[in-house]
Amino acid sequence: TDSHLRHVDSMALLPSGAGAIQHLNAVILGEALASEENDLVFPSPGFSSQALISSPEKYGEMYRRSIEDPAGFWSDIASEFYWKQKWGEQVCSENFDVRKGPVSIEWFKGGVTNICYNCLDRNIEAGFGDKVAMYWEGNEPGFDDKLTYNELLDKVCQLANYLISVGVKKGDAVVIYLPMLMELPIAMLACSRIGAVHSVVFAGFSAESIAQRITDCKPKVVITCNAVKRGAKVIKLKEIVDAALTECAQNGCPVDVCLTYDNKLAMDRESTVWKDGRDIWWQDVVPKFPTKCEVEWVDAEDPLFLLYTSGSTGKPKGVLHTTGGYMVYTATTFKYAFDYKQSDIYWCTADCGWITGHSYVTYGPMLNAASVLIFEGAPTYPDSGRCWDIVDKYKVSIFYTAPTLVRSLMRDGDQYVKRYSRKSLRVLGSVGEPINPSAWRWFYNVVGDSRCPISDTWWQTETGGFLITPLPGAWPQKPGSATYPFFGVQPAIVDEKGNEIEGECSGYLCIKRSWPGAFRTLYGDHERYETTYFKAFPGYYFSGDGCSRDKDGYYWLTGRVDDVINVSGHRIGTAEVESALVSHPQCAEAAVVGVEHEVKGQGIYAFVTLVEGVPYSEELRKSLVAVVRSQIGAFAAPDKIHWAPGLPKTRSGKIMRRILRKIASRQYDELGDTSTLAEPQVVQQLIDLADV
Ligand code: WTA
User: DSSP for 435-502?
Assistant: First the structure.
């Protein structure tokens, strides 16, 4: 371990830009900072020796080049992909500084390519045609399916041809509302093949949320299925879509075509709600189309997809990703963060409705010709051993999930894990929220039998791919730390005034320069893009996360510092939940905060003031929760409704959320100064009502 320790030491303080590179030069030459060995979990020498990045020095070399010569670094990688036409002189042009003009980011401008071609045709030409692209495991054990790269290309082309036949053209939006069937990645790839912009809506969102997104991006076609079974429950997705489409039509935003996949295992055709002329069964039309479809070549900066995500205020934001940089970035981060080998079987438990499913179920892995497992069901059905049953069945070697699942399985007990061999596992991954050290250790020791490194990947919908992530095999890990920045990423921790802090510190996590996978705008609202991400700390991209850096240069993410909460790895804006609550006729005002939750990471805690004269009741509590379910989705349902005769506000009327967070977590002795409140007595009232 001695040499490993030297490696870690040599990486100390690495990631803060140009200064860091000088520092790196100094420390590699022998200067070292002390480190506590008991913090560290070492990759085995066997793992490191076969790893793509086998040592901190190798990382250091590549990282240094990526910072000093980003154009050269990323051009070399981009050249491994197929470009109909190479990009122009300038590999990257960016303005991160609002004070100097509009924020803009461009990578590989002038390059002409297609990401679907690079995922499928290019890999088939390279000899992977008969390799399994997707394994599908159904909700019910025993139901499964698979597609090779050849077969996948055929299916994608048929759907692409269908979409063309109904008038979908380059630049048109297509909304996809599907569960984890193989048809979901197929639909994404079919869109990108023809230059259409997909917007996947997680199949847990309500009709209202779908309608909101449709109204914003105005798709020609919506793709869905009649129903899905998750665990023992049947969810009738088509009914939800139907309600959304009816609302959209009434609001002057009709959708012409609703392509519906008949998911026979969950529901029969006859009982599906249907609107003739608009709705059409996938199985009735798509298989009739040819299995060859010409690629629509697009500019590197043409849009690839829109994905709506929650912010601290207002309605969801349409995060827009473009083609070339996203392609290069997701492929590269996937390869290095999971130490990907062609023999791997890869399973990411995320749904394609979230960014993780875009970048690390569909695009990143398929750009690497990986075999990807897709699981339709719930991870604890029929029991808590299901994940490991699947791991053994398919010999999964890379398993990527969220801390919330780790914690819930940990609570159910080791016996469910130990029943299965899991010897195929090689690399584990975590995403979505900070992983607490105890869950990390359980994941590492019990699931991975203390031999599989964990890639705790920090990133966001906006970033397209990993920004801070371990490279397994490169260096020792610290449970709970996402370790070091990926190639080309220059993090900066800044203080309240926006001054960068060096060395061991904590503050707000920002990024100094662009990386290829960065989002380019918020759809239809570039001003909001600039205000939300680039104005708080001019000159930087502000992530919204708090972070600290330890003496060895490891990064520790501490959670959101804005009004966004992370519930079971799902990102929810407190403002959205509040606006759903106040739409209830008996709710006068609502304030929502996150509160620590043993399994979910954060729970949703809502303070609700009722309309004058309305008494609180259990029934009312239920109908308030129901309104959130129907406006956003079940995953956003408040865990607690706290009756609030009044809310703590400043004299200027601003709700003091700091105080609400303390009340929510019952930390009454940490309320701080309440004397500046307009009505200080509300605090005691709230405390008295805590358990009513
Ligand atoms: C949080 C999910 C700590 C963070 C990919 C971020 C994390 C938000 C991690 C983005 C991690 C994600 N450690 N926190 N490894 N990964 N987060 O857009 O607060 O759904 O800002 O993207 O999740 O959530 P989003």
Answer: PPHHHHHHIIIIISTT-S-EEE-B--GGGSS-SB---TTTS-B-TT--BSBPTT--EEEE-TTS-EE-
Distance, CA 570 to ligand 1 centroid (Å)? Answer: 9
Task: Assess whether the C-beta atom of 601 lies below 6 angstroms from ligand 1.
Answer: no
d(CA 331, CA 531): 30
- Annotation says 562 is catalytic: yes
Residue 511, CB-side half-sphere exposure with 13 Å CA sphere: 28
Please state, in angstroms and rounded to a whole number, the distance separating the CA atoms of residues 197 and 305. Answer: 5
From the candidates 262, 279, 562, 563, give the one annotated as an active-site residue: 562
626: enclosing H helix or E strand? helix 618-631
Residues of the chain with pLDDT under 70: 1-38
pLDDT at 330: 98
- Give the integer Cα–Cα distance in Å for 516 and 93: 10
Q: Tokens representing 454?
A: 């964990």
Ligand 1 center to 460 CA (angstroms): 5
216 and 204 Cβ atoms separated by less than 8 Å: no
Q: How far apart are the first and last CA of the chain?
A: 55
The answer to whether 602 and 594 are in contact (CB under 8 A) is yes
Q: Are 629 and 637 in contact (CB under 8 A)?
A: yes
| pTM of the predicted structure, to 2 decimals | 0.93
269-308 residues labelled b (16+ CB within 10 A) or e (exposed): eeebebeeeebbbbeeebeebeeebebbebbbbbbbbbbb
| Sign of the C-alpha dihedral computed for residues 109, 114, 115 and 119 taken in this order | negative
- Write the single-letter amino acid at 471: L
* Packing angle, helices 574-582 and 618-631, rounded to 10: 120
Peptide bond into 179 cis (omega under 30): no
Q: What is the ipTM of this complex?
A: 1.00
Q: Compute the distance from residue 688 Cα to the ligand 1 centre, in Å.
A: 35
Q: What angle do CA 499, 505, 506 make, to 5 degrees?
A: 80
